[in-house]
């Protein structure tokens, strides 16, 4: 005969889900075994445990150099460089229209080039190394970040213009070396120093303006005006001292069902239950 107070017996009678339930406990799946017969150190579940990556450190927005690539940096570089190309295109188109009033656009002159070919060369082909160098510098080395102050953005634009000028000089080394064979060493000096500086200085000044425009464009708030009641608008945040409504309602009394008498209050620990009638019953007659 088992002891009624035996905890093992009472646990068997209760079952897994509580008193009076005899259902067995659900079977747990066996953990995956490792070659050593136990869990490998540092592994959880079927795959190896990978420690969390440390948070990426943000660069200083006030420094001139901020290496890194992102969608925002590329967008700012595109806005600045494309704006520069548009300015050159409009300026060259105005000059082409004015010269066409005197000389036919497709007639050759001087070195055998026409007005149209000179326009394409002067606007797109010749300054292309400057465009590429400035774009790469603004996209990966000196980005136009909205968090940076305007003086830092202007300094980065100057550095990008210097990178474009250096790109022009590198291309001039090749063209000047070929031209020096025919015209002498002076052609090398012109293509490496004179022409890059002649084109790089005005391009850098225009890049300052276009970089400022890109800086303002990236910082402009997006979207229209918020509708009343949208998250973040005044009147949608509850005050700190507001009392939330009750989520649990007391059960409503059911008609026709006798109410169970409430249990007497439990005395405090170590105390005694006070008598129900401390003065005793009525006196006998």
Please give a structural write-up.
With 285 residues, the chain is an all-alpha fold. It is 45% helix and 1% strand. It contains 6 helices and 2 strands; from the N terminus they run αββααααα. It has helices at 7-14, 71-100, 115-125, 128-140, 150-183, 186-218, and strands at 43-44, 47-48. A two-stranded antiparallel sheet has the order 1-2. Strand 1 and strand 2 (47-48) form a beta hairpin. It starts with 6 loop residues before the first helix and ends in a 67-residue tail after the last helix. Mean pLDDT is 76; it is low at 36-44.
DSSP strand (E) fraction? under 5%
Portion of residues within helices? 40-55%
**Shape label:** elongated
Number of helices: 6
Main sheet, how many strands, which sense, barrel? 2 strands, antiparallel
Terminal Cα span: 56 Å
Unreliable spans? 36-44
Order of helices and strands: HEEHHHHH
Instruction: Provide the residue-averaged pLDDT.
Output: 76
The class by helix and strand makeup works out as mainly alpha
The radius of gyration computed from the alpha-carbon positions, rounded to a whole number of angstroms, is 42 Å
Strands of the largest sheet, in order across it? Answer: 1-2
**Quick one: how many beta strands?**
2
Attribute tags:
about 0% strand, mainly alpha, two-stranded antiparallel ribbon, about 280 residues, single chain
Structure summarized in a few sentences:
The chain is mainly alpha-helical. The protein contains six helices and two strands.
């Amino acid at each position: 005969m088992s002891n009624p107070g035996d905890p093992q017996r009472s646990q068997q009678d209760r079952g897994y889900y509580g008193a009076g339930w005899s259902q067995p406990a659900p079977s747990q799946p066996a953990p995956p075994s490792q070659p050593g017969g136990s869990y490998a150190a540092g592994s959880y579940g079927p795959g190896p445990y990978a420690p969390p990556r440390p948070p990426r450190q943000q660069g200083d927005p006030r420094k001139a150099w901020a290496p890194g690539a992102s969608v925002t940096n590329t967008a700012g570089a595109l806005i600045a460089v494309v704006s520069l190309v548009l300015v050159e295109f409009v300026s060259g188109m105005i000059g082409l229209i004015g010269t066409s009033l005197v000389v036919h656009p497709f007639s050759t002159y001087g070195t055998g080039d026409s007005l149209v070919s000179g326009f394409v060369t002067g606007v797109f082909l010749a300054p292309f190394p400057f465009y590429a160098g400035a774009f790469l510098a603004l996209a990966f080395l000196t980005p136009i970040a909205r968090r940076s102050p305007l003086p830092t953005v202007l300094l980065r634009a100057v550095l990008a213009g210097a990178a474009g000028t250096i790109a022009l000089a590198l291309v001039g080394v090749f063209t000047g070396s070929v031209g020096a064979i025919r015209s002498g060493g002076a052609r090398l000096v012109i293509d490496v120093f004179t022409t890059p500086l002649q084109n790089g200085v005005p391009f850098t000044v225009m890049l300052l303006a276009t970089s400022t425009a890109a800086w303002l464009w990236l910082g402009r708030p997006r979207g229209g005006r918020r509708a009343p009641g949208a998250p973040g608008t005044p009147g949608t945040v509850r005050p700190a001292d507001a009392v939330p409504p009750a989520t649990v309602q007391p059960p409503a009394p059911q008609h026709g069902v006798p109410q169970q008498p409430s249990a007497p209050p439990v005395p405090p620990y170590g105390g005694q239950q006070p008598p129900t009638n401390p003065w005793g019953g009525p006196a006998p007659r």
